[in-house]
Specification:
The chain is of the alpha/beta class and 646 residues long. It has 27 helices and eleven strands.
Length: 646
């Protein structure tokens, strides 16, 4: 998560400076920083993005509307202002990321930095991240430029907004306000329509985010009448602050967002912009502390996330309270330095007149973009991800990130795909991981593996074993969708239908005798949905069909990605304690004796993944994971052991 850049430290030209808006920036930036720093109580801190969108829409629309009305608006001048406020600190931060990542990141993680840098420079980071969604999307923990998506949304909005105003003023000036209202409603309806989709469109793309900036635009255009009574303004402001606090505390990564849920921070921010002047809330927001944070808010947004990413990457462990406090302090210090020595000088027209700003902008973009392009060029740095920086042993462990099912991308129904493709393994699959070989479609399936993404590598290894017997096995897997009839998460409205379809397919396959069930059983949403009870009922339905049920038990989740852990620290790398694993999964594993008594076969990975009181991450010389929680193919073979196809 991240937030967009604040556009100016003040109000639209033609109005007096409003320190309360800088204070509102502080109310937006701090929750986001605390959310990223994993501070308890700020699970919904990402709503700061939405607050900034409203502020940006209000400030910039006011400027554009007044200048267009006065016949003084210039596209060139508008983007000169944008360049001097946005580019210097942004380019400095991206240059830092390129240098730090080239020093710290392993090849697989480093490979994604240069493309994301080029996307950020071109204000297309949101589009780039949207295209990367899915199971091969880089983890947010190794994406130091993730937060620049919001800059892309803003700049794309500001490409169209001036043109929109000019066209309306020239063709139908009386319809200006109505046109913006219609566009805002279209965007909001689109966002609500897409809010539950997991493809990332609603989150990253302008059409579903524009309504938040249009909310500020409508304020700047005078849609909302002035509040005449002080006590009404006081109540509105108090309610708005309470709404922001409530959303910050109550929302979390499982909240369906944006969409309807985004109304809370958007309307609250709009209410504070409109009603705060002259109120007690406005006075608090105008105090020196909040205003100071607001002044450095753009730099604080830019720098805090890369610092967190590199800190965690170096330490290879979860953030402790001390780490979080130190990161916040360092982020604020770096943000002040960035504001004082980068932002402020370039905003001075005396030191950097328009011509010089364009020269420096072009030069800075050329140097940073050129450096990123060189990092992408094949062979210049010794191959993709610059592997020459590391020794052979580290690279061997690091390359375990590629030890996953060859058909993982094709055979996991997730995000874009509504239903799993017809993934049939075994028979002609072979043992070398030939994703193109497929299986003999004329052979009726003997088994099926049904589950979420934790079943994918298990499916491939089972396919190898069924292939040895000339049989095939079906793979039906959907990300974050466990094999339980009745599980219907708000974050994936297609999950329930997917599972019903798989159950119907099982019922119709007379010769299909064995059903393997796999899932990421430790997940909090599964526990909160009482998945154990849903699984109990699902097992009963399968057994009533005469199917043999095999459950693949929980896989321990390690602190960070195992290939990186081994590459950086070797075989002495710390792993998850068995006691913590048992505590996290007891809600599910406590049912194993009962299910065994009903004839269910249970394969418990933990039985083959322990060493002393710790879980194992390597067997022989092969990493058992390709990330922090998914088994590698080597891990799946190790867990299944010598078990033959059933």
């Amino acid at each position: 998560m991240s937030s967009p850049a604040p556009l100016s430290n003040g109000t639209p030209s033609g109005q007096s400076y409003r320190p309360d808006i800088d204070g509102l920036r502080a109310l937006a930036v701090l929750p986001v920083v605390l959310y990223h720093a994993k501070v308890p109580g700020f699970s919904g801190g990402f709503i700061g993005v939405d607050i900034f969108f409203v502020i940006s829409g209000f400030l910039i629309t006011g400027i554009i509307a007044r200048e267009v009305d006065a016949g003084e608006f210039s596209i060139l001048t508008f983007y000169e202002r944008r360049a001097r406020r946005i580019l210097p600190a942004l380019l400095a931060m991206i240059a830092f990321v390129l240098i730090a990542a080239s020093w710290l990141f392993l090849p697989h993680d480093f490979a994604g930095v240069a493309p994301s840098a080029l996307a950020a420079i071109g204000f297309m980071a949101n589009v780039y991240l949207f295209t990367q969604t899915g199971y091969f999307q880089a983890s947010s923990q190794v994406t130091p430029l993730l937060h620049t998506w919001s800059l892309g949304v803003e700049e794309q909005f500001y490409i169209g907004l001036p043109i929109l105003f000019i066209l309306i003023v020239r063709t139908m000036p009386a319809w200006r306000l109505k046109a913006v209202i219609v566009l805002a409603l279209i965007s909001f309806v689109w966002a609500v329509f897409k809010q539950a989709d997991s493809d990332g469109f609603a989150f990253y793309m302008l059409p579903t985010r524009a309504w938040e900036m249009f909310a500020g635009s409508l304020l700047a255009m005078g849609m909302v009448p002035a509040i005449r009574r002080r006590w009404i303004a006081e109540v509105i402001c108090a309610a708005a602050v309470a709404a922001i606090v409530a959303a910050t505390v109550l929302y979390d990564r499982h909240t369906v967002f944006p969409g309807v849920a985004a109304l809370v921070p958007v309307l609250a921010a709009a209410a504070l912009i409109h009603a705060a002047p002259g109120t007690r809330t406005g006075q608090i927001l105008s105090m020196k502390g909040p205003v100071w944070i607001g002044l450095i808010s753009y730099s604080l947004y830019l720098w805090h996330w890369p610092l967190i990413v590199f800190w965690r990457y170096t330490l290879d462990e979860k953030l402790t309270g001390l780490h979080s406090a130190a990161l916040i302090a360092v982020s604020i210090a770096v943000a002040w330095l960035s504001w004082r020595f980068i932002e402020r000088p370039f905003r001075s027209k005396a030191r950097f007149p328009a011509k010089r700003i364009w020269q420096w902008s072009a030069g800075g973009i050329g140097v940073v973009a050129g450096s990123a392009t060189l990092m992408l060029a094949p062979g210049i740095l010794g191959g993709s991800g610059w592997p020459a920086r590391f020794d052979e042993n580290a690279l061997r462990y690091a390359n375990a990130v590629y030890d996953h099912s060859p058909v993982r991308a094709a055979c996991v129904a997730d995000r874009i795909a509504d239903h799993s493709p017809d993934c049939t393994l075994g028979a002609a699959q072979g043992s070398r991981g030939d994703a193109e070989a497929g299986a003999d479609p004329s052979v009726e399936p003997a088994a099926i593996i049904w589950g979420d993404s934790h079943g994918v590598e298990i499916a491939w290894v089972l396919g190898e074993r069924y292939a040895a017997r000339g049989q095939v096995i079906l793979q039906r897997t959907r990300g974050s969708c466990p094999p339980a009839i009745g599980y219907d998460p708000a974050t994936d409205p297609r999950c329930a239908a997917f599972n019903r379809g798989v159950l119907a397919e099982i019922a119709a396959a007379d010769r299909l005798s064995t059903v393997y069930l796999a899932g990421y059983w430790k997940q909090a949403p599964y526990r909160e949905a009482r998945l154990d009870q849903l699984m109990d009922a699902t097992i009963s339905q399968l057994q009533q069909m005469g199917k043999r049920v095999v459950i693949i038990g929980p896989i321990p989740t390690q602190p960070v990605a195992v290939p990186r852990l081994l590459a950086q620290q070797g075989l002495d790398a710390p792993t998850l304690p068995i006691s913590e694993f048992e505590e996290n999964t007891a809600w599910f594993t406590s049912h194993f004796p009962k299910w065994r008594a009903r004839g269910v076969t249970i394969i418990e990975p933990i039985d083959r993944m322990t060493r002393g009181d710790r879980t194992m991450i390597v067997a022989g010389d092969s990493p058992l994971y390709y990330d922090d929680n998914h088994l590698s193919l080597a891990g799946a073979r190790h867990v299944l052991g010598d078990m033959p196809a059933e």
